Amino acid sequence: MNSMIHILAQESSSGAAAVQFVILLMVPVALYFLMIRPQRKRMRETAALQASLAVGDEVITNSGIYGFITAVEDDLFWIEVDEDVQMRVARAAIQGRVPSARSTEDSDES
What is the pTM of this model? Predict the structure, then answer.
């Protein structure tokens, strides 16, 4: 009887160890799907946006400054923030494109 209890105790402890091992393997997988993959997707979207910007686009910088792109030099943009006031900013400082009033009117009519 004692040997039977001893065998059952060994089986239950090995089963618990297997469950712990599986959980330990699932943590990196969960981190990948919850943190790393969405961050990479945002980085790809940002890179695509920055590559598609052209002269005349209205943009917003990471610091919240709105302006129109007036010139492009390698990894720099010249942005006009007011009449005769231009700033030179890095391509990476562009957060997004500001939707024009015309494109929002078109989507409202649809």
Answer: 0.62
